[in-house]
Amino acid sequence: MCSPYRYWDFAPGGENTYSYVYASAAAGLATFRYDRLGTGLSAHPYDAYNVVQKPTDVAIAIKFAEMLRAGEIGGRAYSKIVAVGHSYGSIQSQAMTAIAPTAVDGVLLSGYSANATALPLYFTSTAYSTASLVFPTRFSNAELTNPYLVTLAPWTNQLNFWYFPYYAQGVADYARMTEQPVSQGVLFTVANNITAAEQFTGDVRVVTGAQDWIFCYSNCYAVPPDSGYASIPAGVQALYPAAHSFSTYIPANTGHVVNLQYSAPESFQNMIQFAEMVFSS
């Protein structure tokens, strides 16, 4: 799973409603997650331009998949792997299937579509600022150089990631308190080289909130009548011409943070059903 610290195992006060890891474990599925380079307990390289960027992150994801196949993590080799990403993690996962099409057997892209036209507006409206200035008690200049950024304020965070009022304010507050940085290198390279995974023959599912602002302009059903697609996320199918199967799930009343809105339990069940389908095939 490729996404920042805590997102996949979000359990404030031990409450597991918003933990995909907990829901998967309850269904008998093993998960492997890691803190992306520059976040959480992973290294925070000084050069947040040339080192901490998309190509590096994708190479790391591919290497982890290879290690899981070979039993080099936890002493157990996994014959079937599903990559589960969110937002930038989905961008990495899609790139992984294009570059290393046999690395995983299925890919679940959440908070994602093939429409990147809103990304420039997202960078502006999120109003990123230096992490050590926004959260001086959490991050220091000794730990993070200036190109490590976080969202400037709670309201810029809410605008881009949440769909009001379909979330608990306490959950949003805790997410803000545990927010992890993104590097300018990532922001500069995030939309680069999005190419079709022409040789990927596994299964693909896209799970994107109906009101996702970043990838759907807040309406995932706003497609031209002659587009041939029922939704914006459905357009991802064009990136997977050889996929064994392609499907979408669009939870209602849900913004970008699929795992943290009220719809999360239903979204988790859909994700788990997809993983079970891949593992049983």
TrEMBL record:
Residues forming coiled coils: none
State the SUPFAM superfamilies in the record: alpha/beta-Hydrolases (SSF53474)
Top-rank taxon of the source lineage equals Eukaryota
Domain AB hydrolase-1 as annotated: residue spans: 18-260
List the protein's name. Unplaced genomic scaffold scaffold_16, whole genome shotgun sequence
Q: Which organism is it from?
A: Hydnomerulius pinastri MD-312
